[in-house]
Amino acid sequence: MVSTRAKEALVSLEDDLGGRAVLVETLHFANLDPRGVEFVRQAGSLGMQAVPLATLCRQCNISPYEIIKLHREGALNRGQTIAYTRAAEAMNAIMDDLIDKAVDHEVDCPRCDGTGELKNKAVCPDCTHGKRFIGADPKAQTKLLDIMQLGRKAGLNVGIVNKFDGSGGGFFDEFVKASDKATRNLQTEPAVDGQVVS
Ligand SMILES: [Zn+2]
Q1: Looking at residue 112, what is its pLDDT?
Q2: Residue spans per domain, the chain
């Protein structure tokens, strides 16, 4: 039984989030059990748009509290995925920079902009053919070795890979499983979409 207060809370949640489509999209990122998958399927189907969420809750035997909890979980998972991706991108740039500094390398000479000659066509006294040799930075080498050791000890590499490749049982894995299941349900039970439920 869904109380009037719970019904109103769900209507207001739906409005606050910007509509049912947004709610359903976010729920896809939560760890859904079969009832949750069914709820998302029904709430997302075109024929059910006029059916109140509280009614769908009752039909799927799922409480409004669970929907609110799943929505929070989905929003958090989605946000974390974006944050992880951005952090990984930033990490690549930081590591590239660190690796460059940790080995001997050449840079364009700042005095002649890498041309090897000054404005008056004289040979630049600060470089060789526009390049300057930069020796490996021992601090960068130490830092790089620390990071690699740390990663090995804490199993960081394994953890990060598992989060994204779907083999670690993380939320992404669950999301893929739930989506597959929802797709199968849609294929085997097409009649529900046309039903009018009040
Ligand atoms: Zn120069």
Answers
A1: 95
A2: 4-80+167-194
